[in-house]
Design brief:
243 residues, Rossmann fold, globular
């Protein structure tokens, strides 16, 4: 399993509809400890933006009074609605968030901010956040050593390199009404069976968007022995206060 790196939010983002079930099965979850480092009260109304199948939404719903989840892809949104029935699930995009001005106390983006790292989306996030509210960006990162076979990891690296990511503008939030970006991390682990590992590979945009996706997945499957794979992970959390 490899961490997802930032890519542009165009055609690759839409490829997730081809792998909704694999996305749900293979993607790692989030430790509740990531919420402990944030200045967000349990009585808060929070938004999970680009919520996918609801892995982060589920964690948020156990902590916060009201959770709204916005996801543009119907295939992912259907799983999300079944998974977290207490959440207010809505169709929408970061560039046109279906919320009123200053409606939420925090906006969360779990492994998703790179899909909408642009000035229009950041302005929308600032619009729906109350002053003093929090923008939270989370990413799961693998921690070496990887339990995956060397040839499997090498082939994944080759596939990922075939679709090199653009650079995300590091000054994006500085142009918006946000204060200093702060950082923390929380250790956790993901325990996956062989089919879960292959589901993760099927779900990443740089494989899901390929015309030869099934051939690539068969190739990877031939490299991966049966068994249980334990991935040491680190949930990286960054946040900034809406001024």
């Amino acid at each position: 399993m490899l961490s997802c790196w930032p890519v542009s939010a165009s055609e690759p983002a839409q490829s997730f509809h081809r792998a909704a079930l694999e996305y749900e099965r293979g993607r790692p979850g989030w430790p509740e400890g990531v919420l402990d480092v944030l200045p967000v009260d349990a009585h808060a109304t929070v938004l999970d933006l680009g919520a996918g199948t609801g892995k982060l939404t589920e964690v948020l719903a156990r902590r916060y009074a009201r959770v709204i989840a916005v996801e543009p892809l119907a295939e992912l949104r259907a799983i999300l609605a079944r998974r977290v029935q207490s959440a207010d699930v809505r169709d929408g995009r970061a560039e046109n968030i279906p919320l009123a001005d200053a409606e939420v106390d925090a906006v969360f983006a779990g492994q998703a901010f790179h899909w909408f790292a642009n000035d229009v989306a950041v302005a929308e996030i600032a619009r729906v956040l109350r002053p003093g509210g929090v923008l939270v960006m989370l990413w799961n990162q693998d921690v070496p050593p990887s339990p995956l076979p060397e040839n499997y990891r090498r082939r994944l690296d080759e596939l990922r390199a075939a679709t090199p990511p653009p650079r995300v503008d590091e000054h994006l939030l500085a142009r918006a009404p946000f204060g200093e970006v702060r950082h923390d991390s929380v250790a956790h682990e993901q325990v996956s069976e062989r089919e879960d590992v292959l589901a993760f590979a099927a779900s990443v945009s740089w494989i899901a968007s390929r015309d030869d996706r099934e051939q690539v997945l068969a190739e990877l499957g031939a490299m991966l022995p049966e068994g249980r794979y334990v991935f040491p992970m680190r949930a990286e959390v960054s946040w900034a206060i809406r001024t």
